[in-house]
Amino acid sequence: MTRQAGVGQASSMFGEKARLRRLGGSPLALAVRALCLLDAHHAAGCTVQAALQEVAGAGTGGDAPRPAKGNKGQAHADAAWAGRDRALATELTYGALRYERRLGWILSKCVAAPQKLPLPLRRILQAGVYALLFLERVPAHAVLHTAVGLASALYGSRLGGLVNATLRSVQRLGDAPHERSFYVGKEPVPFFADAQTENTRREKEPEEIAVSARFYGLPPALAVCLADEAEGSAERVEALFQRSAQRPWHGWRINASSAQGEEVRAAVLGEPLRDLAPQGSRPEEGSEDTVRRVGKWGIAFAPGSQPEQLHGRSLREWESEGVLSAQAAGSQAVLEKLGLQDWVRAQWPVWDACAGQGGKGLALREQGGRLVLCTDTSRARLERIAQECRRLGLACPGLALADARFPLIRPGSWSGGIIADVPCSGLGVLARRPDIRRRSFAEMCRLVEVQRDIAAALAACLAVGGELAYMTCTLRREENEEQVERLLRLPGLRLECRRVWKTPWDHPWLEGMFGARLRRVE
Questions:
Q1: If you average pLDDT over residues 110-139, what whole number do you get?
Q2: How far apart are CA 154 and CA 159, in angstroms?
Q3: pLDDT band at 276, cuts 50/70/90?
Q4: Buried/exposed code over 393-409 (b: 16+ C-beta within 10 A; e: otherwise)
Q5: Which pLDDT tens digit goes with each residue over 17-36?
Q6: Whole-angstrom Cα distance, residue 272 to residue 288?
Q7: What's the confidence (pLDDT) of residue 272?
Q8: Residues 6+ apart with CB under 8 A from 99
Q9: Does the pLDDT value for residue 40 go beyond 70?
C-alpha cells in the first residue's frame, strides 16, 4: 500500500501524478484525477475548472489521451464521444465537490477508519458514490467495474476489493441517502479530513440547520454564513441551501458589437422567451421555461437544456467567431440592475479595477461603452483580456498589472466609472464553483479587509460626479451592505448611493450577486 496523505502532505501526495495519469481518460478517471489535483494545489488557488482542463488535456501540460483516428467517419465519432466523456467527467467532478460533505457522511457509514486509506482511494469512492446516487443514466455495474479497476490499478487487488465492498454497501442503503433523516446524528470525523483545514469551522452549526447542511453538502462555516443571510427564516435557509447545491444555468452573452450580433439576438432572444423570473416566482412546467433572456444581450439555459446549435450554428462556432461569450446570468444581471448602461450612453471612460478575465468590462465595451483601462494582480488574467479582445474584434483597453488597493490613478482624478468586482467569499456561486466549499472561514475574514481597502482606495480616485460600481458574488452582509455603509462614512469624501441590487433570496435559479452604484458628490 502506498503511503498515506496527511494534513500538509497534499503536494507530496501528488507525487503519484504519474500513476494517476496511467488511469486513462475514462470520465471517472478524469474526475478522480481532477479531485486529486485540487487536493494538491487548492491552497495555491487551483480551481475545479482549471483542474479539469489540466487532466482533460485542454490546458498546458494536459495529459489525457487524444481521440484515436480511424476509418472514414470515425474521427467525427471519436470527437463526439470525447465530448460526451468530458461532459460526464465534468458532472462527476462538480457533483462530487458540491456534495463532498454529504458523500463523506454516507461513506462514513460504510468504511471504518477511512483516514487510514490513501486519499486518492477515497476520491475514487467519492466520485463512485456520487455516480451511483445521482447519475441515473450511468449503470451501477459500470460504476462499480470502473471504480474497482481504478483502485486496483493504483493500489492492487486488495484495495480494489475494498472499493467493491464499499460501493455495494452503499447500494444496500437503498433510498436512505436521499432522505434527510439519514443525516441526523453525531458528526463523524470528516471522511476527507486530510484535504480540509481545521479553520473551515467557524463554529458548530445550530442543530436546526446541521441536518440540512449535511444534506446539501455545505461545510459548517458556509452553512452558518448562509443561515445568517436568511435572517432566521427557515424558508430562506432552505432556499439558499438548495440553490447552493443545484446545477447552475448556463449563461451566454451576445456580442452587441459583432456584425452578426443583432441578427443572432433577434433570432435567439425574440418571443416567446421570458425575462428573468421576478422575485417570488417559480418557473412553470414547459419547454419555454428552460431558456430565459438576461437583459437585452444575454441568454441562460436550464441545466441539461443547452442546445447544440443556435441559429444554425454550434455554440462553440459562435464563440470562436466572437459572437458569443460564456458569462453567468448573475454577472450579466448585476450590470443591468445597477443601470450601468447610463455610463455607456454618457460615453464615460470606464476603468475595470479588479478585472479578472474582463467579463463585465468587455460586456459594456461590446455595447458601446468606453472601456479604457483594466487592472489586475494577475498577468495571466490580463493576457486573457487581450486574447478576448482579439476574439471579440474589440480594441484592447490599457492593461496594467496593479493591486486595486494601491491604484495607479491619482486621487480625485477619475471622472468616469470604476468597476470594482472585488475578491469575495463566493457564497453566491457555490453551485458553479464547488471548490469554494473548501475555503476557510479565516480566508473569508481576510477578504473583508481586502474589500474594505480596495473600495476606499478606488472611491478616493473618483472626481466629483464620477461613480463606483461595487460588486461581489457573495451573500454575506459583511462583504456587501456593511462595505457600502463604510464607504458612505469615509471622512473627507462624500458619496451617495444611487442604486443597490441583490439577487432575491427566493429567485429560483439566478446566482447570488450584490452590487451598489455610488457617486462622488463633493
A1: 94
A2: 9
A3: low
A4: ebebbebeebbbbebeb
A5: 667 777 878 999 999 999 99
A6: 7
A7: 56
A8: 130, 134, 216, 217, 245
A9: yes
Same-domain status, 362 and 322: no
State how beta strands 309-310 and 324-326 pair: unpaired
Assigned domain for 192 exists:
no
Give the CA-trace dihedral at 26, 29, 34, 40, to 10 degrees. Answer: -150
CA atoms of 154 and 324, how far apart (whole Å) = 42
- Greater confidence (50 vs 422) lies with 422
Spatial distance between the Cα atoms of 271 and 193, rounded to a whole number of angstroms = 51
Distant-in-sequence, close-in-space partners of 96: CB < 8 Å, separation ≥ 6 = 31, 35, 103, 123, 126, 127, 130
E strand or H helix at 50? helix 48-55
Last residue of a domain, one of 152, 182, 212: 182
pLDDT band at 12 (very low <50, low <70, confident <90, very high): very low
Q: Is residue 84 part of a domain?
A: yes
> Alpha carbon of 460 to those of 258, 375, 412, 447, 454: distances in Å?
36, 16, 6, 20, 10
Residues 65 and 168 in one domain: yes
The residue behind cell 464553483 is 433
Shared-domain flag, residues 79 and 155? yes
Q: The pTM is what?
A: 0.87
Please state the domain count of the chain. Answer: 4
Handedness of CA 60, 65, 67, 69 (dihedral sign): positive
Same domain, 405 and 304: no
Here the CATH number for the domain that contains residue 499 is: 3.40.50.150
C-alpha cell at 379: 498577468
Domain housing 209: 197-245
CA 453, 459, 465 angle in degrees (round to 5)?
175
CA 16, 19, 21, 26: dihedral to nearest 10 degrees? Answer: -120
Kindly state whether residues 260 and 232 are assigned to the same domain. Answer: no
Task: Categorize the per-residue pLDDT at 200 as very low, low, confident or very high, splitting at 50, 70 and 90.
Answer: very low
Q: Grid coordinates in use for 126? A: 467519492
Pairing of strands 298-301, 291-294: antiparallel
Give pLDDT tens digits for 415-474: 999 999 999 999 999 999 999 998 888 888 899 999 999 999 999 999 999 999 999 999
